[in-house]
Amino acid sequence: MENDVTDRLWDKSVQEFIQACKHEQLRDVRLGYTVLDDTRKILNVTATYASRKRGPVSVGYRWAETKQGWLPEVFVDLHTAPAGLPAAPRILAWKSRLWRERAGVRTALEAVSLIFFKATAVRNDLGTMLTSRSPESSEVVLEQGHLLTLQTLNDLAFIYSGDQAASQRP
Description:
52% helix, disordered C terminus, plasmid
């Protein structure tokens, strides 16, 4: 019974991740890791925003080391802002010379943040599943599971984001 529930949660979180990747203005969604000082790995998301004015622009959600410690930030091209800042999309649109597209930049950054949180949910569900099946599972098994999850999420993001997904949408 417990495995059935875990499998359903896994399927639900994967489906939510796929839906998040289907944003119409994002292409080439990629996930990676940032290794923190204590060897923990935290996901990063980068994508290409299809700007009408400038063409493809890099956007994403990542972790950066600051004086206060590791904090999440969003970025557009080379410009960054704290992830929780409500004005971040407007600031980044202004700095990146995309002011007329600020609504598109905002939705792209929201989509990238959503992809980050859905990918984290998939990763956490896998960790829960691995530890529930074998409570004495080692760090090596969890590490292999996380790497396999990252590879799978990148494959799903490639399939469902960008031009490939646009041709499959109803």
